[in-house]
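Please decode residue identities from the backbone states below.
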């Protein structure tokens, strides 16, 4: 008897989808377990072999933990913003909204055919306003905050403005780009523009001049892992080190807290 792979797999995949077999619900009687893969860039005509290479391993582990009695959350999504999606749209001569939508549909079809146990009710698309409104919210929170070294935490920038107006920088220990010293009178005498320039020195999300990997042909800054031997991974264009005005995050202020937090991570 011949085993009809195509027919059998298609039937069971439809069964899983119709009954939402892998949908996760809140269940406090079970221990929680979270498995997250790197989201693929929907920037090609389909998945490549590197995608299932990692996804299969994590899916096996997810199924293993379910059988052990864990309430496993194993979602999937698409990293739809950025250079890969933009370059694919340019190469195909289409609007990125169209290519991204079509590629996501194709990726989803291929992922379903492989039979992964994803909870698709929690699918994430980074180009979805319902998703990126939260990244925008987080950025605004950081832009409107400063880091107090004494308290070892972020505080609202409005508090700092009030302190500046009353005592200047006296007695303050703040994370900053450059150390500054001024009195309350000097602060109050400055224009709104001058005050905003000073505040940029303390914001957690701030504008700063940093050395970046600049690719003139792509017209963008590249991460280190997007550059190989002085050329861009995508396109093979020359990349140069250049100091540019960029949005930065004052992550170094959290260095010790991040190190200390490692002691509390459950690595099991």
């Amino acid at each position: 008897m011949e085993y009809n792979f195509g027919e059998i797999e298609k039937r069971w995949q439809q069964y899983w989808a119709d009954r939402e077999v892998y949908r996760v619900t809140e269940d406090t009687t079970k221990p929680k377990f979270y498995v997250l893969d790197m989201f693929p860039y929907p920037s090609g005509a389909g998945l490549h072999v590197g995608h299932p290479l990692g996804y299969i391993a994590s899916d096996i582990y997810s199924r293993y933990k379910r059988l052990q009695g864990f309430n496993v959350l194993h979602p999937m999504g698409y990293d739809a913003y950025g250079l890969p999606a933009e370059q694919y749209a340019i190469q195909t001569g289409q609007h990125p909204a169209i290519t991204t939508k079509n590629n996501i549909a194709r990726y989803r079809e291929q992922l379903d055919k492989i039979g992964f146990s994803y909870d698709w009710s929690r699918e994430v698309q980074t180009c979805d306003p319902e998703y990126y409104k939260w990244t925008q919210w987080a950025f605004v929170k950081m832009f409107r905050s400063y880091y107090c070294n004494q308290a070892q935490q972020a505080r609202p920038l409005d508090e700092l403005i009030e302190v500046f107006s009353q005592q200047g920088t006296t007695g303050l220990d703040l994370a900053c780009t450059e150390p500054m010293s001024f009195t309350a009178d000097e602060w109050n005498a400055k224009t709104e523009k001058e005050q905003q320039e000073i505040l940029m020195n303390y914001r957690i999300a701030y504008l700063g001049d940093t050395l970046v990997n600049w690719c003139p042909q792509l017209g963008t800054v590249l991460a280190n892992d997007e550059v190989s031997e002085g050329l861009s991974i995508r396109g093979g264009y020359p990349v140069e080190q250049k100091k540019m005005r960029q949005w930065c995050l004052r992550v170094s202020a959290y260095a010790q807290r991040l190190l200390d937090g490692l002691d509390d991570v459950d690595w099991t």
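Observation: The first strand starts at residue 32 and ends at 34.
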